[in-house]
Amino acid sequence: MSPAENANFVPRASLADTVYERLREEIMHGQIADGSRLNQVDLAARYGVSRIPIREALRRLQAESLVIATPYHPYVVRNVTADQVLELVDIRAVLEDLALAKRKELGPGTVAELRRINREMASGPGGEAFLALDRQFHTLIAGPDSMVVGMINDVRDKVHKYVSNMVDAKPGRTAATQEHEKIISALEAQDMDFARRLMREHVMQSRLFIMNRLAVENTEPPEDEKPKPAKAGRKAKSSR
User: Fold this and answer.
1) For domain 82-218, is the CATH number 3.40.50.720?
2) Which end of the chain is more exposed for a tag (fewer CB within 10 A), N or C?
């Protein structure tokens, strides 16, 4: 293999990782809808790779319950019901509470870093940058070495597409950062019981948002049942 060819060579494992990350992101962000069939031949052509890294990526996504294998079609994006989404948020509330229950206290340096992250969230544009900072905030509270963090992030990934709209609007971001500040103040005062209560309320606010969003989606008529705009009437011929 020439030096030029070697420079462009991508190990199969790295290729599978890249495909996995792209597919996972598209599923999490709703770019590939729930219930969509994932044809390996089509995906291979789309990403410009062979079917081997596609198959490896799909197996990893299946292990995370983001896709499922079916008898008649190998892989389909998991269709999560409204009740399951709300159940996941309830699970996150329990996990966040457990993480805080295991923490004795947070030092001044950690509290200062939480405030810095929260200020950046408050002044930032929202969207994915806001959600990434929010994940940092909650990870820092739980403790980076906590085994609970991985479980919390797994739940967050599964409901990502349902909460992303919440931080697109300024009021949603403002409410979240104000709730964060209350949690920080409780942690600074080393009042862990109060911090746990505030954390539960904070997570439940996202649950309320998701409930309202799902209610709107479930009441909106399908595209083929939406009223069509009235066609403009033909102009009457003027009499001469």
Assistant:
1) no
2) C
- What's the rounded Cα separation, in Å, for the pair 73 and 71? 6
Q: pLDDT tens-digit profile of 70-119?
A: 877 689 998 878 888 889 999 999 999 999 998 888 899 999 999 999 99
Cα gap 24→67, rounded to integer Å: 10
**What is the sign of the dihedral through the CA atoms of 210, 163, 38 and 217?**
positive
SS3 for 75? Answer: strand
Could you report the per-residue pLDDT of 174-227, keeping only the tens digit for each? 999 999 999 999 999 999 999 999 999 999 988 888 887 777 666 544 444 444
For residue 187, the tally of other CB atoms under 10 A from its CB is 22
211 and 86 Cβ atoms separated by less than 8 Å: yes
Sign of torsion, CA 24 149 190 198? positive
Contacts for 210-217: CB closer than 8 Å, 24+ residues apart: 210/85, 210/86, 210/89, 210/159, 210/162, 210/163, 211/86, 213/162, 213/165, 214/82, 214/85, 214/86, 214/162
